[in-house]
Amino acid sequence: MSKQIILKEYEFLQTKYETSEHEKAHYINERIFDELESFVLQNDAHVNYLKLTTKKGFGKVLQAQNYVGLIQTNDGTTIEILPKVKNINSDEESKKILIKMLCTLKKSPFKHFNKVNLKSSKMPLLEIFISMFLEELAKLIQKGIKSDYILKEENLHFLKGKLKISEQIKQNSIHKERFFVEYEEFSSDRAENRLIKSTLEYLYKKSKYNKNQQKIREFLFVFDEVSLSKDIKTDFSKIKCDRQMKDYEDILLWAKTFLLENSFSPYSGESIAFALLFDMNLLFESYVGAYLKKKGFDVKVQDKGKYLVQVPSKYSLRPDFVLNKDTENEIIADTKYKNISKQQDISQADMYQLYAYGTKYKMSKQLYLIYPKGDDVALQRYAYIENELHLDVLFFDLSLGFNQELFVQTRCEISV
Fold this sequence. Notes:
Number of helices: 11
Distance between the termini: 64 Å
């Protein structure tokens, strides 16, 4: 029976019982550890999904950091990596927060997520994703799957469409009773539907949840006349992005997520059967940005056009957010997904970066440096008096959002 392991950020996997059990340690057998170690080493040039390191009393370990999601080994063992959230201890609550963060990602299949899925947070993460895919597919099937005129070439016993003379001579010089023809047929066997059917077949092998398996069988019946994709990447290149195919947009994002597996994070090698991982830096930025928009701010994301050196234009400056609300002055905000447990953890480089933004954005006198809320840290205002710039270090609670009182006070000071 396949095993499921749930890790929080900064917890680690190891194989040896050399010391008493540590609250952050999870034990796995050596073969699975070796597969994961190989995965890490093969992908170290891209990103470090799991940090390979050593810890006293444990030996060699693989520590979760900066990436969340799931990894499945070839024997079916699934490792779920969940965000570490201040004052949240249950896996179910951490999973809910992760799903909420995923829903803020642009150009992702999570954006039309149904909140009903939050009630399913006791399910494995992969099964939740499969449920979300099936829910989206149910909407498409209700509207009706699309057919199109498909160009076909076949060697038939009767004449249909256009006779292909060169192929007729090549293939039917002996079989005079046959006709090599080219014709158009109105069919549902188009690239988009082939990709959906291939996703269903793929997920049927992955899912262990009876309800999901039953739905997949039902949906496969709908796609009975559709063939499986013989070339996934080629079929993705054939997708028609027009108004008539608007209903397919989200379901094809899901298909890409499952079939290509590298939509969010590139990885290589054969030591891992499946991986779906998300960069917490991007998730944190996306989540904070969505929150600010809900609070009524006009939010420009990754603003471009300013340079540290103007002539010639070099070293582009791209703050995470340029904000406007009820004031002539812009507000510059930058997110940094770092574990801040004491004042000294606040990076000098982060401070310099915000200072550079403030000097180039002339209308911006207020700067925010935003970290995730961790251990209690005394908030401190940093004032650059010479340029009338004010930098506030804020801590965003992933479960609650900004401290409302602090946020209002800071905004009032800007408008004075």
